[in-house]
Amino acid sequence: MSAAGAGFAAYVVIGNPIAHSKSPAIHARFAADTAQDMHYAHLLAPLDGFAATVREFVAQGGRGANVTVPFKLEAYALASQLTSRAKAAGAVNTLTFEDGRILGDNTDGIGLVSDIVRNAGFDLAHKKILLLGAGGAARGVILPLLEGKPAQLVIANRTVAKAEELVQQFQPYCEQPGQPCILGACGFADVSQQFDLVINATSASLQAELPPLAGSIFSPATLAYDMMYGSQPTVFMQFAAAHGAQVRDGLGMLVEQAAEAFFVWRCVRPHTDAVFAALRAAL
Q: How confident is the model over 72-127, as pLDDT tens digits?
């Protein structure tokens, strides 16, 4: 892939597999709506050739890349400079190529928070939040969630030690002036209190499975959010709804993290409502 002439920026989403990605359609709509002259495409990288693929793309005039599975950790290692949110996440999903540098960022967390706060109208301040999972998806959203100043954030995971590691890593963010937050870790079976927001960051929904949770943690005031999305509600969403909770899937997170990456690259913030509606209709 080669970049076109002056004023024409080249961007891609890199992954393996990658043909299914909706990112090119999303960014094409953002570019049209904001009058940005840019080209965005899929780029398949060999499982053992991510760094080489990126360097070849840069040499051909590439300006930026979104990174998806399984390369987010490799993108983190490849970056010559990292944003604070990428450092906190320990993974990179957005690369910017500038003056010979590779700038690594992570927009997943802000994408989640933007969807919850702006699109779902849910204020994080002073709320009790339960985050299910302690893998990369969970790690990437903890800092933006804490920046929303919740009263409590509990990380529940099958292996409690992994959740405890995240608590230790992010505890300093809870001790900053004006941002007190109780940060805790536990196993799924140990979750008993009700929460205002429950976020499923596990991969269980991909297998139509459910983390072992008590239905009593939900109430009619609870927002149950699954990072996965599809044409039908996930098993997690069905379970939460059956116990009275409001539910939302991760399609908005997908759109909002893309919008943040677009802003990082182009310094223009696109509107997301029309893109979200089009993707929802196409599911």
A: 999 999 999 999 999 999 999 999 999 999 999 999 999 999 999 999 999 999 99
Q: Which pTM was predicted?
A: 0.94
Please give the full DSSP string across 194-248, using - where no structure is assigned. --SEEEE-SSGGGGT------GGG--TTPEEEES---SS--HHHHHHHHTT-EEE
pLDDT digits (tens, 9 = 90+) for 54-68: 999 999 999 999 999
Pair 220, 245: CB distance under 8 Å: yes
Give the residue numbers annotated as catalytic, written as ranges: 72
Name every residue whose Cβ is closer than 8 Å to that of residue 222 and which is 6 or more positions away in sequence.
194, 195, 196, 197, 198, 240, 244, 245, 246
Close Cβ partners of 188 (under 8 Å, ≥ 6 residues apart): 132, 156, 157, 158, 211, 212, 213
Asked whether the bond before 172 is cis by omega within 30 degrees of 0, the reply is no
| Dihedral pair phi/psi, residue 91, rounded to 5° | -155, 155
Report the distance separating Cα 102 and Cα 104, nearest Å.
6
Q: Where are the alpha helices (DSSP H) in 21-71?
A: 23-34, 50-59
CA nearest neighbour of 39 among 266, 274, 276, 269: 266
DSSP letter at 4 equals -
Contact, 204 vs 236, CB < 8 A?
yes
Around 131, how many Cα atoms within 13 Å sit in the side-chain half-sphere?
Answer: 33
The CA angle 8-14-20, to the nearest 5 degrees, is 105
Q: How do residues 183-220 score in pLDDT, each as one tens digit?
A: 999 999 999 999 999 999 999 998 999 999 999 999 99
CA angle 241, 109, 197 (to 5 degrees): 30
